[in-house]
Amino acid sequence: MTKLTTFSPKQKIALTWWSGSSPFHKKEAIICDGAVRSGKTLSMGLGFILWAMCCFNGCRFGLCGRTIISFRRNVLKEILPILEDMGLRYTEKRSENLITITWRGRKNEFYQFGGKDEGSAALIQGVTFGGILLDEVALMPKSFVEQAVARCSLPGSRLWFNCNPEGPGHWFYKEWIQGAEEKNALYLHFTMEDNPALAPAIRQRYQRLYAGSFYQRFVLGKWVSVEGRVYDFYDQSMAVKVPEEPCEEYYISCDYGTVNPASFGLWGRKGETWYRVKEYYYDSKREGRQKTDGEYAADLTRLAGGRPIRAVIVDPSAASFITLLRREGWSVRKADNDVLSGIRKTAQLLKSGRVKICESCCDCLREMELYLWADRDGGKDVVRKEFDHAMDDMRYFCATVLGGEDTAFAVGTVSRRN
After folding, report:
1. What distance in Å separates the CA atoms of residue 137 and residue 160, rounded to the nearest whole number?
2. DSSP assignment, residue 139?
3. Cα–Cα distances in Å, from 160 out to 8, 51, 83, 387, 407?
């Protein structure tokens, strides 16, 4: 839990903008964006609950994240103990995604929703709210946000938006941030300096871990475009020699392809570092012959080389290959295929040295130089669908096996279907 010592000026505004003594109390919405770890999520979460409990009784409110799980982890886990210390009491019904809060004779209900895709809008229809908090709003589809906003029809209802930046063509940036005055919304831009709980050494660590456009977005908090190489900080001089085996544990990650190349990576852990020890890469166009699932399974077995493989991480769209591997006795996990989130996690792990590519992995190193951002697609960040096969299997490993180790980093929304 976050240990509170003091709040920064911007955090205080986010906490109290709605009160009668605030110069912003006539605003109907608040938008907080900016750098990661800038303190906006904590102050927004606390401010929203305190506003609801001070201004309403017997009403319903909406708490929205990209998923309910991420909202509980990133917001509720932090603010509920603080609210208890302040004298508020709550009961939680997880089966109904409901939290009931009581304070000074008032009682209100807070329903949690996930807005991860277009179908999520249907989940929030038909409910009337006194207000709604949308955390990570830039990761939600427009249809969900519009439906959530439409639910707030009680007198005095207000809208609370919180996010990290995406690209400048993003619909939320264009409609809400650039149109904040027109929408009668208070806009606050946060930097890491606005979080008094963040030590200078931690700020410096974040500055080391990000590069290029992601540095601009998540350290400086700017809505900027991505361009050029995806891993623009990496060059082949960073490749390392294969560590002495055996490693402490092993995984294999697979980007399955029939017409397109298939790429498998063998990963071994030594201490806190994961090495791409060995790889398999087959381009059917170059070789003039497509392989069957059975042939690929035999190739995977040869790549494993008798090592104890903890799990095989496979592209979730490769249903027949997954079925065959499981039938042959492999432990198989379907890969987390959220592209932007996976790229960010992979970049963080490469920069920190937690993940290293060995000199023997020639195709992975080759693709690192050729993996590029594509032209923008409707305001979303997308990568070119070429030279991305080893990149995909590396991303599957990083996102699926190591993706939960540091939840402080922002996640993205672009999903990819091969």
Report:
1. 10
2. G
3. 19, 11, 18, 41, 22
Q: Distance between terminal CA atoms of the chain? A: 40
Left, alpha or beta for 126 (phi > 0: left; psi -120 to 50: alpha)?
A: left
User: Could you give the CA distance from residue 66 to residue 116 in angstroms, rounded to a whole number?
Assistant: 5
Per-residue DSSP letter, 175: I
Q: Can you give the pLDDT of all 418 residues of the chain as single tens digits? A: 455 568 999 999 999 999 999 999 999 999 999 998 999 999 999 999 999 999 999 999 999 999 999 999 999 999 999 999 999 999 999 999 999 999 999 999 999 999 988 888 888 888 899 999 999 999 999 999 999 999 999 999 999 999 999 888 889 999 999 999 999 999 999 999 999 988 889 888 888 877 777 788 888 898 987 778 899 888 888 999 999 999 999 999 999 998 899 999 999 999 999 999 999 999 998 899 999 999 999 999 999 999 999 999 999 999 999 999 999 999 999 999 999 899 999 999 999 999 999 999 999 999 998 899 886 555 678 888 889 999 999 999 999 999 876 433 333 322 222 2
354-366: burial string, b at 16+ Cβ within 10 Å, e else: bbbbbeebebbbe
Q: List, as one string, the DSSP characters of 74-124.
A: IIIHHHHHHHHHTT-EEEEEGGGTEEEEEETTEEEEEEEEE--SGGGGGGG
Q: How far apart are CA 258 and CA 281, in angstroms?
A: 12
